[in-house]
Target: Putative amino acid transporter
Amino acid sequence: PHTERNNKSKTPNVPQEKKAATAPATAGKAALKRQVGLGSAVALIIGSIIGSGIFVTPSSVFRNSGSIGVDLLVWVVCGILSIIGGLCYAELATLLPATGGDYAYLTAASKVLGRFGDALPFLQMWCYSLVLDPMSAALQGLTFSSYALSVIYPTCEAPYETTVLVALSFTSLAISVNCFSVKASARVQDIFSSIKCIILISVIITGAVFASTTTRNNFQGEGIFNKPESASRLVLAFYGALFSYGGWKQICLIAEEVTEPSKNILRATLLGILTVTAIYVLTNVAYFVVLDSYTFASSEAIAVSFTTATWGARAAVVIPVAVSISTFGTVCAGFFSSARVILAASRQGHLAPIFSCITVHSSTPVAAIMLRGALALGYTFIGSISYIVEASVFLDNAWEMAVLLCLFCFRRTMKDAHRPYAVPLPLAVIKLLVSIALFVIPLLRPVDYVQYVVILAMLVAGGAYYTVFVVFAHSVPGSEHVTRFLQKVLVSAPCTNELEIMLKEKM
Model:
């Protein structure tokens, strides 16, 4: 304490803006660098959205929509909803360009709720960063492994041990790439996003060439705009398409590392989502041009059926390779962006201090990336965890509702703060109503209660951790020594809490 008082007495009277700029150096801390440009930000959004979904889900969306016209309308509407959501998040991310996304906005809003106001952002982080997100990474790893091994085992299923081993190797590679440096991670996103676009554009071009050489027209007839069997089937169609659009808000997780965030976050959001929407709609049009309605609805691997009908049976091996490449790009994007939530939570005291450290030379949150990686590798051993997808979609809508309420809250608590962009109020209301509908409808007629049991278990475990380690501030014996040791090994230093600096200036 005596030393701290002496240090404080020697601190010059510096203006707030200069204090924020010099705080990392004077406090022995490091700061995240703004080194993700517009191109890499767009690549991150495209890479996060385009995964294996567009190669698999179109069949289920078509079955539930009931007709070609309604199916294409669903894909267009989901793209528009994603754009509206992106605009809402762009206002938040440009107002508070800090690491963490949903967690950061909920943390900012919770400041007015008193001592235990941070319970909500903590539970959001707990469910997302420690359970759903690494489980999703594990599922993507197993998906990559299954498709990659289908080339080697074309007539039978690959051994389970082999599938898990390949998934572990693949996930470890993604971890290593993202631990190297931020620039290397961004470069990987640029490459894989370009490859994904090239693959899907080749599908679109193939459909256009096929349309010019055939006399069959699947877009004519009375049944092109048939009504879906029921409203619940239409909702399922929207769920399938929205799942394929998931990932559009990943840019908000790394807002603290985007160059010129007041301009580039909005631009990247619009360019990324518009590009994916155009590609998704045209890809589905290409599928409908080549395949008849029965084949489209009955195929569980629509891209394989498309390739077989156009390029021949031998060329169908291209699809597993394409899906593997697409999935690997998505996992790399996930490690690049989602690990930042762990960093943000550690800076707020919700996780161990080591996870708030970044490397001195490259400003990479290696400890946070390694935690996400360790969880993903551990969940990989569980095997099939596809049921977690439903819980993920359900909770995602719940947190989106809370974040949209934060948007309205900030317009009152930060009404004088500079806003580089403000979403039109009607669009924000539309997005909120859609999120409420997607949250409430599954509760009215639940098909399976497993997801709700999983969610309850997550919340109970999170509540126990919050009570012991946050409210009562208990720590594991020897944790300080472990933190110092890991800091030396990883050549890391604590990261400046930019969110707190921003809130002091704007609230």
